[in-house]
Give the backbone structure.
Amino acid sequence: MDDRIRALAVKIWDYHHLDHQLGPADAILVLCSHDTAVAARGAELFLQGWAPLLIFAGGLGAITRRLWDEPEADQFARIAIAMGVPQDRILVENASTNTGENILFTKQLLAVKGLDPQTFIVVQKPYMERRSFATFRKVWPEKPVCVTSPRVSLDDYLRDYSHGALAPDDVIGIMVGDLQRIRLYPAKGFQIHQDIPDDVWRAYEELVDAGYDKYLI
């Protein structure tokens, strides 16, 4: 990408980050996707002692159903076990297909299990922190939550986590689509409202004009 596109992408990338301070919680909820680095981040937090329960939520979504045959959460759980997380400290929700369902189906699973964690750490991709927070607060407003993601820059993310089926341009397009959803989804009842600064929205419009519109609604 040229310098102009990179600068616009960085502006949106930075907006999507919340920079929450981690604190001890009752459960770590990993929202699964194509990005297995998120699984490693969730396992790392568990092993560091931030929470005694690790939950993976995700079936096959819009992107992963064309990449994989196995649910996201099952793959993520295996990564965590390989890193040393005890299997009996892991719960798997593997039917959800989007962020709202990740949270709603996890809520239902915990109820079936007779579990009622009071505080959560949500783990997500770096460019989906804000939308995950807005969705969690809509679906489960009574539960305190902080959101985190793999600690990585946009340049490193595009270099290390892009692959043949998901190119850097796709990642930028997904970021653009997520910003559109932050604006549109509150009216649909999917998320809480969040302000979008004018300069961030201008960056969105310029990227759409430049052709990064593949993942728009």
